Amino acid sequence: xxxxxxxxxxxxxxxxxxxxxxxxxxxxxxxxxxxxxxxxxxxxxxxxxxxxxxxxxxxxxxxxxxxxxxxxxxxxxxxxxxxxxxxxxxxxxxxxxxxxxxxxxxxxxxxxxxxxxxxxxxxxxxxxxxxxxxxxxxxxxxxxxxxxxxxxxxxxxxxxxxxxxxxxxxxxxxxxxxxxxxxxxxxxxxxxxxxxxxxxxxxxxxxxxxxxxxxxxxxxxxxxxxxxxxxx
Length: 232
Ligand SMILES: NC(=O)c1ccc[n+]([C@@H]2O[C@H](COP(=O)([O-])OP(=O)(O)OC[C@H]3O[C@@H](n4cnc5c(N)ncnc54)[C@H](OP(=O)(O)O)[C@@H]3O)[C@@H](O)[C@H]2O)c1
Known about the structure:
Elements: E1 4-7, H1 13-24, E2 28-33, H2 36-48, E3 52-57, H3 63-76, E4 82-85, H4 102-130, E5 133-138, H5 153-172, E6 178-184, H6 201-212, E7 223-225, E8 228-229
Parallel strand pairs: 1-2, 1-4, 2-3, 4-5, 5-6, 6-7
Antiparallel strand pairs: 7-8
Helix pairs in contact: 1-6, 3-4, 4-5
The structure holds NADP nicotinamide-adenine-dinucleotide phosphate.
């Protein structure tokens, strides 16, 4: 039985390229998206390219949805090897913390931080049961505590929290073959990064795939950019 990868927000951007590259490597890929139609379109495109791909409707803000995904994986594919917590929003560019509205704050934290927590909580037990798992949390330099600046508070705090999730979970997983790392993909040409960004999304996805397929002696609990450790 070949390994199973789950990619959230796999319908576009870095998530789409990550799903595509994992399918090319032979993974069975579960493409989650909050729109069922978008998930199906993306999965169908991978199947046309010869990949083994399944769509799954999931709004990552929904903890029940994460549990539903775990049950579906158990029933249909029998395992989960990789979890790519990619889905994210960037809604408060140039906004001061003092001007941050509740909707932006809640949407950002629920999507970028609580979503990955729900998914780790739901899927790590299956990884532990098979003593293999790799989790990549898509983080950002905006979440680096050593390099904090003004504004973008909701996004920065969500990614700093995501890094804390990486560190706490890695500590809890010490002694197992389940690894979790944060990856900053750099500034990437996607809907989020915009057309002026200096990195190609396929190149950024290749770094995510690298972190998701680390050997047993690879790092866990690290903050990585361009395949190197960076300070938290
Ligand atoms: N691009 C950059 O320069 C950059 C830099 C640093 C970090 N990152 C991080 O990399 C990750 C991917 O970014 P990207 O540039 O590929 O962004 P993107 O092109 O804007 O794509 C974001 C993805 O997240 C999905 N998403 C948003 N809210 C969701 C929700 N509640 N439930 C499920 N899916 C949801 C979107 O789905 P819909 O299509 O339904 O909206 C879309 O698939 C993010 O975590 C981002 O913070 C990006």
